[in-house]
Amino acid sequence: MDHFPIFLATAGRRIVVSGGGDAALSKLRILMKSSARITVFAAHPATEITTWAATGKLTLVRRTFDHGDTICAALFYGANEDDAEDKRTAAIARAEGALVNIVDNLGDSQFITPAIVDRDPVTIAIGTEGAAPVLARAIKADLEERLPQSLGTLARIGKAFRTASYALPFGRARRDFWRDYYFNSGPKAMTEGEEHVRPALDALLESHKTRTARDGHVAFVGGGPGDPELLTLKARRALDEADVVIYDRLISPEILELARREAVMIDVGKEGFGPSTSQETINALLVEHAQTGAQIVRLKSGDATVFGRLDEEIEAIDVHGIGWHIVPGITAASAAVASIGQSLTRRGRNASVRFLTGHDMKGFADHDWAQLARQGEVAAIYMGKKSARFVQGRLLMHGADRATPVTVIENASRPEQRVLETTLNRMAEDLAEANMTGPALTLYGLAPRAALQTVTEIPLEEMA
Ligand code: SAH
């Protein structure tokens, strides 16, 4: 982040613009939204500028900008539409201590003006470090559409009510009250008219005052295979409301970013065969936080019900009568099979599919190999990298065809996704050679659909 976003206090401060043409006009339109004292230096100002000066929106000085003109100014805009003049004026402004922006000249500017979505007092600033103004405008248009015009009004009325809300205890109770206001009762009252909002707030506060403190609760949330867009809407909402997030190693940073900013984030990352937070510690953490009344998100990769040791955690909190629910997620097998354009089941090929783990707590896991060795069987093997040779040996021993297709998908749904196409005969060697370091899912009995074979070899960036 080369440019750090901040909101500048402008009340009573000076902002100086040099120039009176189109470049100056476009900056002035947004600057006039602020409470700054704006001064424009222009020998030949556009008519809009003279009108704004006449109506007291800004001060116009009808001459070119010069020494002393930026004394005590917070910001300076060089909008002369002339490189030499921009350079001359910027040098003066910089020497006089103003922060300088030269229109359309990122390199010589000390700050940039973001694209703005204005629902005053809610202001959203969008910046791309000058890299993609078109993208910034598209995001702005999208937000303009999505955020109701009434948002600003709700925030303004809400602001005036802040002191009244202190009647509720600090922390969760107050947060619940405001959430209810902004996302439920506020918008509802607004549809009847602005004058209904304040009475609605009073009523809401009374109802929240009589509410007993919320009980602690655990949401077991499936975080999906890694791509944040594969989170469910329920998972997003749970993350948004969480007081505490307890997450596993495979949860991607992009997903953790979505958690409520104030949430306590606890990493209990576990690695197969490697160092880990013990299950007992995780259970104890769940109980301890829930007993303080926290809304906990227990975030597990994929679907929490698949090789997630979910039952142990549920049993641990059940003993203490702590409430819980499960939010399903997309399991690695679904993401992996999608990435090779295949189906997990297919009429006439396999009417069932197995989810296997390569190893369990005791080591390599045993299964009904004879059953699996039959023609057409399909299995999704989780945690199957280290056990590849073992699985291969067992299947061959039970008469499986050496040519049975095997596809290993590493980092399914993530930008670093890799697909290894092999056979039962070669799977162990090929896997060892591929040296995969990310999570990998082995699809036994499935090859990438022919048409996709070439596509999977193209790096993802080139597919965008
Ligand atoms: N609950 C998870 C599985 C946890 S076990 C789920 O439903 O997906 C961890 C194993 O899941 C890993 O060893 C790997 O086999 C698989 N896995 C998880 N994320 C993956 C991904 N993005 N790509 C490939 N395999 C993944």
Automatic annotation (TrEMBL):
GO molecular function ontology, one term from the record: NAD binding
Pathway: Porphyrin-containing compound metabolism; siroheme biosynthesis; precorrin-2 from uroporphyrinogen III: step 1/1; Porphyrin-containing compound metabolism; siroheme biosynthesis; sirohydrochlorin from precorrin-2: step 1/1
Biological processes, Gene Ontology terms: cobalamin biosynthetic process; methylation; siroheme biosynthetic process
Sequence ranges assigned to domain Sirohaem synthase dimerisation in this UniProt record: 150-195
All residue ranges annotated as the Tetrapyrrole methylase domain in the record: 218-426
Enzyme Commission code: 1.3.1.76, 2.1.1.107, 4.99.1.4
Reaction catalysis annotation: precorrin-2 + NAD(+) = sirohydrochlorin + NADH + 2 H(+)
Key word Zinc present: no
Protein name: Uroporphyrin-III C-methyltransferase/precorrin-2 dehydrogenase/sirohydrochlorin ferrochelatase
PANTHER family the record matches: S-ADENOSYL-L-METHIONINE-DEPENDENT UROPORPHYRINOGEN III METHYLTRANSFERASE, CHLOROPLASTIC, SIROHEME SYNTHASE-RELATED
Regions annotated as coiled coil: none
InterPro entries given in the database record: 4pyrrol_Mease (IPR000878), 4pyrrol_Methylase_sf (IPR035996), 4pyrrole_Mease_sub1 (IPR014777), 4pyrrole_Mease_sub2 (IPR014776), CobA/CysG_C (IPR006366), NAD(P)-bd_dom_sf (IPR036291), Siro_Cobalamin_biosynth (IPR050161), Sirohaem_synth (IPR012409)
Domain of life (superkingdom): Bacteria
Keyword annotations from UniProtKB, A to Z: Cobalamin biosynthesis, Lyase, Methyltransferase, Multifunctional enzyme, NAD, Oxidoreductase, Porphyrin biosynthesis, S-adenosyl-L-methionine, Transferase
Entry's family note: Belongs to the precorrin methyltransferase family.
Active-site residues, Swiss-Prot/TrEMBL: D248, K270
Gene3D superfamilies from the UniProt entry: Cobalt-precorrin-4 Transmethylase, Domain 1 (3.40.1010.10), Methyltransferase, Cobalt-precorrin-4 Transmethylase, Domain 2 (3.30.950.10), NAD(P)-binding Rossmann-like Domain (3.40.50.720), Siroheme synthase, domain 2 (3.30.160.110)
Pfam families the record matches: CysG_dimeriser, NAD_binding_7, TP_methylase
Entry-linked NCBIfam families: cobA_cysG_Cterm (TIGR01469), cysG_Nterm (TIGR01470), PRK06136.1 (NF004790), PRK10637.1 (NF007922)
